[in-house]
Amino acid sequence: MHKKIDILNIGLIAISLVIAFVLPFKLFLFSYAFLGPLHYLTEINWLKEKQYFVKANSKWVRLFIIFTILLAIYPIYRIIDLGLSTSFEEMIKYIFGKQKIFILTAFFFAIGLILFKKLKHILIALGLSFLLAILLFLYLPKWLFVMGLFLPTIIHVYLFTLLFMLYGSKKSKSTMGYVGAGLLLIVPLIIAFVTIDPTSYVVSKETATIYDTSRLMRVNSVMTQMFGGLIDGKFYILSNIGIKIQVFIAFAYTYHYLNWFSKTSIIGWKKSLTTRRTIYILIIWAAAIGIYMYDFYTGLMALYFLSLLHVFFEFPLNVITIKELFNFKGKKVRA
Questions:
Q1: What is the pLDDT of residues 143-164, one digit of tens each?
Q2: What is the 3-state secondary structure (H, E, C) of the chain?
Q3: What is the pLDDT confidence band of residue 332, given thresholds at 50, 70 and 90?
């Protein structure tokens, strides 16, 4: 079974990469709008059944829900006129503006949930997590910005997917699993060295409008700056490096979702679905797709809560995977 799934994933990597080269913008939008919501819903359901991989400390995961609610109020407010007072609006806008602090706090706290069991230790871990995020904000703002931007995006969909594959291969001792992980690892190099013609890529007005209104280019812009690809200090999406970064992002998101759906039998997330839950998930998924088709920006704001929540809920699993993969003592996890 493992060998068949590993071979399938090698094929999915190849297919995702080829399509990403051909349709880098439309593939990302399709994957994010159609595959993304189903991934959020099924993974959240599976993580809940697994007690978020923190067992006795699973009640503390509620803090992730509180963090997500605090950050999701403003995006929802932007698409629905709630008639809030100006002071309240400014407050939720301020909290949303500090989302990277909450994201880093949640990740650091996930480490604490894995390491500690006693109440006083968990509370100390929570306080230290928030303090560390604040210190990063005050003294290393650029580092906080990059980590806060990449942790729920590129790190989540690419790096953690790679680590899951490596750990799964290590457990199953699958040669094909390692081949798949190795292929995923060198995808950025393949994209970097493949020659492309930027002038052959055309972005329709509809697609350009979606990217402009939804600010989906933030990750692209920062990555371009990191690799020294700005032209006269400006970011151009249709430059050579701009296209290649978009190819990578489209690939990373698409394969991240496909990798999850391909592993129903290995990690058993399909078994956690009851008939009632399946119906609820399908209804919410259909509604999400409908909102995205109506207006992509509205879809992003409406689904912001679910997209961020599934990232937060996965943090303990990410921590455990890193510990197990690099032979640190800790809990074992099926991946």
A1: 888 889 999 999 999 999 999 9
A2: CHHHHHHHHHHHHHHHHHHHHHCHHHHHHHHHHHHHHHHHHHHHHHHHHCHHHCHHHHHHHHHHHHHHHHHHHHHHHHHCCCCCCHHHHHHHHHHHHCHHHHHHHHHHHHHHHHHCCCHHHHHHHHHHHHHHHHHHHHHCHHHHHHHHHHCCCHHHHHHHHHHHHHHHHHHHCCHHHHHHHHHHHHHHHHHHHCCCCHHHCCCCHHHHHHHHHHCCCHHHHHHHHHCCCCECCECCCCCHHHHHHHHHHHHHHHHHHHHHHHCHHHHCHHHHCCHHHHHHHHHHHHHHHHHHHHCHHHHHHHCHHHHHHHHHHHHHHHHHHHHHHCCCCCCCCCC
A3: very low
